[in-house]
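WARN  no MSA supplied for this record, continuing single-sequence
INFO  ligand: zinc ion
INFO  echoing inputs
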Amino acid sequence: MNEFDRLKQIVDERVEAERDSLFALGNQILHEPELGFKEHATSERVQQWFRRLGLPFRAGLAVTGAKATLDTGRPGPTFCLMGELDAIVVPGHPHANPDSHAAHACGHNAQIAGLVAAAVALTDDRILSELSGRIVFFAVPAEEFVELSYRRQLIDEGAIEFIGGKPELIRLGEFDDVDLAMMIHTSAPKHGEMPVELWESLNGLIAKTVSFNGKAAHVGNPWDGVNALKAATLAMDAIDAQRETFREDDGVRVHHIVTRGGDLVNVVPSEVVLEMNVRGKTAEAIQEAGSLVDRCIHSGALAFGAHAVVDTLPGYLPLRNDPGLADVVIPNVEQIFGEECVGYRGHSGSCTDTGDVSHLMPTIQPSMTGASGSGHGADWAIADPDAAYLSPGKTLAMTAIDLLRGDADQAQSVLASWEAPMSKNEYLAFQRGIRSQKTFGS
Ligand SMILES: [Zn+2]
Ligand SMILES: [Zn+2]
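INFO  complex generated
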C-alpha cells in the first residue's frame, strides 16, 4: 500500500471509530430542525465537536455560522469544507417542528454530520504532518432562500445585508482567507441517477416581493373597491402565458407563492403579497426574465387600476463546478461507491449560494446518495446513514489530503488553471446593483 492509500486508510478508520456518535449527530439535527439565520442549537452542536476536537473556531458569523481552522503549520493554500445548518418548511414531514414546520427535508443535517466526520478524520496528527496549508471547516447558515419577510426584517435591523448565508459571509470577509471550497449535498437518486451526481452548472436566482394594493369595499358592492387579488391573478396568468418564450438553454424558472391573499372573505381584497424567485443559467437570462415579470406585474395593476410595488433583491449566482477539483474528487468517490458511480450532468434548474463562492474561487459541490423521497418533500428521509452521514466526510477528508499533501502541489495546480469570473468587490457591486424598487399603476 503506498503512502497515498495509507493516509486515506486512517480517514476511514477515524470516521468508522466515531460512526455511532456521527449517526447520533445527524439524527439529533434531524429532530431539531431550525430555519436559516435561526440555527442556534444546530450551530452549538457543531461548536461542541470543534471543542472536542481541539479546533480553534469563531462562531456567530452571519448570525449562526461557525468556522474552525486546522493549520498544518506549513505554508500553502486554504481548502474550505462546508456544511449547511438550515432546514426548510415542509408541513406534514414526520420530523417537522410542530410550530415552525421546519424540517430537514433537504438533508442539511447529513451535510453537518459529514463536515464533522471530515474534521474527525483530518485532526489526526499522522495525516496533518504530511499536509501543507490550512483546512477550514465551515458550518454555514441560511442556504435555503426562504422567509423573505423575516430576512428583510434582519436586513432592516442591520443584522445582515444579503438573504443567503454564503453571500453574507463573503461580504463579512469570511471567505477572504480561503482559496478553494467544497461541499457535498445529499441526494435521493431516482431511476437512472447515480450515487454521485456532478453537474456542470446550476441556476442562479433573484427574488421579488410584490405587493398589489387596491381598495377595500363590501363584496356586495365590488364596484366601490379595487380587487388586488384579481390584479395579482392576472399578473400570474401573464407570467404563465409567457413561459413558452423562455429558451431551454437559459434554464429560466419563475415561481411564486401568495403570502397574503386578502383579509376577510366578505371584503374586496385590498392588499395581496407575492414572493417570487426568478431563476436562470446566466445573469443575463435572469435579468431578461426579471424584466418580463415586471411587465406582467404592471399589466395586472394597469388592468384593475391597482398599485403594485416590486422589491427586487439579489439572490444567488449560478454555480460552476470546477473541472480541476472534479478530477481530484472523482477517484475518491469511486473508492467509496465503486467505479462508474458518477453521473455527469449538464445544467440543473436548482440553485445554491455555493454558486456565489464558485465565482470567487475553484469550488465543487457534488451530490451524494443516502436519502430517499423528494427533496423539499414530506417523504424525504435518510435511507442509508452510512452513505448520508459518513461517506461525505470521508470524501471531503480524502480530497483535502490529495489537494494539500506534500507541498500542496495538487491544490496549486487547480489554482493555476483557475480564472476568477469576478473579484470580491465586483461580486458585491454586482449583487448590490440588483436591489431595486419599482412601482406600477395608480
Ligand atoms: Zn433545499
Ligand atoms: Zn439543500
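The first strand starts at residue 57 and ends at 61.
INFO  checksum written, moving to next record
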